[in-house]
Specification:
The structure holds 2 protein chains of 2 kinds. Chain A contains 4 helices and no strands. Chain A is an all-alpha fold. In chain B, helix 2 packs across helix 3 (about 55-65). Chain B is elongated and about 55 Å long. The chains are: A mainly alpha, B mainly alpha. The interface between A and B is large, with 30 and 52 residues.
Chain lengths: ~90, ~160
């Protein structure tokens, strides 16, 4: 066997073992480990953001920076498409 | 080479305004009902894609070109970041909700608990929904339009 293949098999085995043992470390379904942030958002979203929709308040207010990243992804996609299908001069 | 049959065009003529109304409703009520700028923008852009399918991309390209749509997309992005930076100015943090509870535009605070829908709530969230809606409408529509037009002509230099 090539040296490259042996290295790949060893790395795959290590990662697979980590993933396999992480199965047993997952918290049970429906019982999250940390609930402080969830409880704060559910309890205070109407007072702090003035919105009845908790999902929108999370996406645009508590996690607004994440939405900025999503908007950047869309901008990059449009820029890429316009660059590939640009007008031929 | 001017779109599909008359049946398809008539169906699209009936469906297009309803799609527009539904998509704009989803954008405008993003802070009250499920949905928001991204989802409503996708609905409106799919309605515009329906026009492209029925009438042909050449006909649509005569009405609006990709530079104008790209400008609209940039306006949406700049508006989104502007609202976020206004949060930095009038509030304390980037993306701060400075309009919530101020009794100005969208400034009403709903009572805690399960309450009825009040459109005049949400602070900066409706403004961000509008900005993201414009951005997603123009962005997805320009992707669909440019790809459809580029696949229908051999070498496009209009």
């Amino acid at each position: 066997m090539e040296k490259r293949t042996i290295v790949a098999v060893v790395v795959f085995a290590i990662v697979a073992v980590f993933f396999f043992f992480s199965i047993f470390l997952i918290h049970p379904f429906g019982k999250p480990g940390q609930v402080n942030m969830d409880d704060h958002i559910i309890a205070n979203t109407q007072n702090e953001t003035g919105t009845n929709n908790g999902v929108t308040s999370t996406v645009f207010d508590y996690r607004g920076f994440d939405t900025l990243g999503e908007a950047t992804i869309l901008f990059t996609a449009v820029a890429g498409v316009l660059m590939i299908f640009r007008r031929v001069k | 080479m001017s779109g599909m049959s008359k049946i398809v065009k008539t169906s699209v003529n009936i469906l297009f305004p309803l799609t527009m109304i539904f998509g704009l409703y989803v954008i405008a009520h993003g802070h009250l009902t499920p949905g928001g700028g991204f989802q409503g923008g996708a609905i409106v852009a799919s309605g515009c894609a329906m026009i492209v399918v029925a009438y042909g991309s050449k006909w649509v390209f005569k009405q609006i070109n990709e530079k104008r749509l790209s400008t609209f997309e940039s306006i949406g992005g700049v508006g989104f970041i502007t609202v976020a930076l206004l949060g930095l100015v009038f509030s304390t943090v980037f993306f701060g909700n400075f309009l919530a509870g101020s009794n100005l535009l969208f400034g009403t605070t709903p009572a805690t608990g399960s309450t009825g829908a009040d459109f005049n709530t949400g602070g900066v969230l409706p403004l961000m929904n509008f900005a993201v809606g414009v951005k997603v409408i123009a962005g997805l529509f320009v992707i669909v339009l440019v790809m459809a037009y580029a696949s229908s002509v051999k070498e496009w230099d209009t």
